[in-house]
Amino acid sequence: MRTTRILLTALLSMTLLASCGPRTEKVIIISTSDIHSKLDMLPGLATLIDEAHAQDTAQVFVVDAGDRWTGDPFVDMAPHAGRPIIEQMNRLGYDVATYGNHEFDMGLDTLQLRAEDAKFPIVLANVNTGTTVWKQPKPYVIKRAGGVRVGFLGLVTNYAGGHPDGDDAIFEGTEFFSPEWAGERYGKELRERCDLMVILSHCGLDRDTTNVASAFPMADLIVSGHTHEKYSGKAGSVAVVQGLNKLRAVGLTTATITNGKVSDLKTEYITLPEEGKESVKEEVAEYRNVPYLTEPIGTLTTDATKMGLAHLMADEGRKVAATDLAFYHVGGTRLAGLPAGDVSRGDIYELEPFKSFLVITTMTLADIKEMIINKFNDTTNQKESHRVDLIPSGLTYTILTNSKGDAVDVRFRPEVHKELYTVAIADYVYGNKVYAYTRRAADGTTEQVTDYLIKRLSQGPYTPNNTPRGEIKIGTK
């Protein structure tokens, strides 16, 4: 892949044509999504933005498609939760953003406070905030770049129980609408008011290239977020770009506007330059100067994979709950792994940033099968379907699938014989409608996952078990 500097130079090499010819202007859009509080990558992003602004042949916009926090304890557990990432976005000169599902993790009070901290507009077209503390955001904003009007409209996913992914209680009093509703309500209106129309969408690449593109066929560009995938392409006539989460790649779009019309538009994703901006490095170091989070509290004897960490979360949960079985979910395991050696509180809070706990309940064999099969076959949240999502403790299992790849049965080892099992299950799984199964009454809860993990690691070295406990097999035997 070409270096960032060479790429930007090539993109910005065209100058405005002479006044005697067609009026042509160039717009550069640097787009991020799913930053998840990744402070360490901000110096490189600052360098990229500075390089773009150093050119005088294009107008530059920096935009974000949601999920700015939840993922780094130095941001999420700051005295003002989430503020460090907003402070840096202000300093880096972001122009506009939309909301992601994780913006809601800390509640509407915190969401509104951080929106007030932002020196850039945060737009969202498919919501009614009602009488909540969250003030109704503007559906879109129009920015001027020289003689070009650029419109930015925001969308957030709402397929998990009719609202962004998260606990139902957080969203009480709000109402979320489909991309199709937003397209009908605002699409034509915005198109008539701008020369370059951009949708900032936290609906996921699968929906952005289908539902959103169909709802906004008049748009020029969809900046996609939520699914953590590198993508540069088209959905019909609409360009779509998405970088990777945690700033491992960002989107770069170059649009040429001739006489008020888009005459050329190119998208790609790029990695950030290694040479980060020194002043931002210093600010990041200050945010991370928290001994409580950085001091070691335990050790791993060998490397832990993502699965090994999920097993730790499930095993220790079953132990403290004193239940027959436990189930955690792989999506709640937010680290890809940890190396052998010292582990800090910061590592544990990054592994589990949601303040989760386990719910103690009872389940039959039919309940467990129903939960696993329905989650595997989920057609609503395809990002998390057709995979081993539920991580067990106390057993292993095989998902049997048909020729279409859908689950039809589950085989357990050892075979399940009890009529009713006591189970400790992640509160997200127990309380979220995306996990469809017959729920029985809760008999209690554990302490927070982070608390029991820290206690276990403080007791002595831990050897991870990285061997998968769930597998997928085609066939019914």
Structure description:
- This protein is of the alpha/beta class.
- It has two domains: 4-285, Purple Acid Phosphatase, chain A, domain 2, CATH 3.60.21; 295-474, Alpha-Beta Complex (5'-nucleotidase,  domain 2).
- The chain has helices at 4-11, 42-54, 73-76, 83-92, 107-117, 179-191, 205-215, 278-287, 291-294, 306-321, 345-351, 365-376, 427-431, 449-458; strands at 24-32, 59-64, 96-97, 127-128, 140-145, 148-156, 175-176, 196-202, 221-224, 231-235, 238-242, 250-258, 261-270, 296-300, 304-305, 325-329, 337-338, 341-344, 357-363, 390-393, 396-401, 407-413, 421-426, 444-448, 470-474.
- Strands 5-6-8-9-11-10 form a six-stranded mixed sheet, covered by helices on one side. Strands 3-2-1-12-13 form a five-stranded mixed sheet, covered by helices on one side. A five-stranded mixed sheet has the order 20-16-23-19-24.
- A hairpin with a 2-residue loop joins strand 10 (231-235) and strand 11.
- Helix 10 crosses helix 14.
- The longest helix has 16 residues, at 306-321.
- The protein starts with a helix and ends with a strand.
